[in-house]
Amino acid sequence: MGPLTIIPISGIPEIRPGDPLGEQITTAAAAQDTPLANRDCIVVTQKIVSKVEGRLVPLDHEDLDARRALVEGESVRIIRRRGDLIISETSHGFVCANAGIDLSNVEAGYAALLPVDSDRSAHRIRATVRVAAGVDVAVVVSDTFGRAWRLGLTDVAIGVAGLAAVLDLRGTQDALGRELQVTEVAIADEVAGAADLVMGKSSGIPAVIVRGLEASFLAEGRARDLVRPPSEDLFR
Amino acid sequence: MGPLTIIPISGIPEIRPGDPLGEQITTAAAAQDTPLANRDCIVVTQKIVSKVEGRLVPLDHEDLDARRALVEGESVRIIRRRGDLIISETSHGFVCANAGIDLSNVEAGYAALLPVDSDRSAHRIRATVRVAAGVDVAVVVSDTFGRAWRLGLTDVAIGVAGLAAVLDLRGTQDALGRELQVTEVAIADEVAGAADLVMGKSSGIPAVIVRGLEASFLAEGRARDLVRPPSEDLFR
């Protein structure tokens, strides 16, 4: 397997609702001499996708009651509460803090909700890139989630196009020729986390190229594949 | 921020207890024309670290009672059981399936236990590389864990040397000049996951170079920093 290169795309302009995001990413990548290429995977933060899709809603950040009402409205099930923190399940099936509603890197007086359907968002960006750059890329929409048991947040995939979300290795063998015990790898989440390493939370890099992924990863996945069905989930 | 390059190291020989792992990694990296360099981060799988440290124990893989007894012996607390699956907390504080005991890529009739202290393992590899290659690298020992709520496994850090495990961004500002809401990023886990993308579970690449990490990441962290204290954990 060859090396993987993870390239931050800077110079993406401040995003407004309805902007042609795939086109802006294509232009910015070309302007920094790393034009998009076939088999690249583009990782785009949820925040700019939400902005493009008009998912900003007015919210006084200091008004904790309004905040709580907004989180509850975006939740289909509350999993845990502690103080102002709510861990809940969103309509997409994601379990995360505050229903994924975001206050950083959003104008004061507003909050960014998750895209309604991030897989569709990823497909839309992919289609725009196909037209603008003439290449076929995979797209991951990433967001920053906490985890049970482990401290610190990591970026995970909430939308996927042209990439397997979970890679099923059942039937393959380990290096010693025996059936693999580890069978399902959440590669879309690993791609999102890898991209985060060059995003820099404070520098505002909203898109990253992951170049060199194995060809077998470039299948048709969807973020839904990353949601553990509640019936099989021991922690919901 | 510049690009990040993730380079698989092939040609590492079959590992035996007591082998000078840092030296073998140094030699293999040089042999493929990607010699280790200052500020590289080397990600090494738990499996070869366990082999070097003699953490293989005899186990008949088909004997489910023996398997369960071994898992319970390596656990300090059982979190959940379902069928043959045990989710438990290890002496290190990690919550994972089967106490991290591994049967793939291990000779038949054996199981690989987690290293006793993977931070110390990482420090040892780092020190050996310093002597063998004359460069100062960071080291992550990685393992493959499942997650609550999300399907698929990802690689995470169970040992760290020369790298912040969790990067604390408190006090820094977002791109719009406001205090960041996301404050603690589990970069060691993101590094481990990124490395897994070139490891290929079946191809047996046991070590990877992550090159180009931001200098501020190269602080003195430890895997313990990634363990959420049970008292603050809503899911334990």
Provide a descriptive summary of the structure in words:
Two copies of one chain form a homodimer. The first copy, chain A, is of the alpha+beta class and 236 residues long. Chain A has two domains: 5-54 and 115-230, 60s Ribosomal Protein L30, Chain: A, CATH 3.30.1330; 56-113, CofE-like domain (CofE-like fold). The first copy, chain A, is built from five helices and twelve strands. Chain A has helices spanning 21-31, 46-52, 64-73, 118-133, 187-196, and strands at 4-9, 41-45, 56-58, 75-82, 85-90, 95-97, 110-112, 138-145, 154-161, 167-168, 184-185, 207-211. In chain A, the strands form four sheets. Chain A has a five-stranded mixed beta sheet. In chain A, β5 (85-90) and β6 form a beta hairpin. In chain A, α1 (21-31) crosses α4 (118-133). Chain A is globular. The mean pLDDT of chain A is 92. At the A-B interface, β1, β9, β11 and α5 of A face β1, β9, β11 and α5 of B. β1 of chain A pairs antiparallel with β1 (4-9) of chain B, so a sheet runs across the interface.
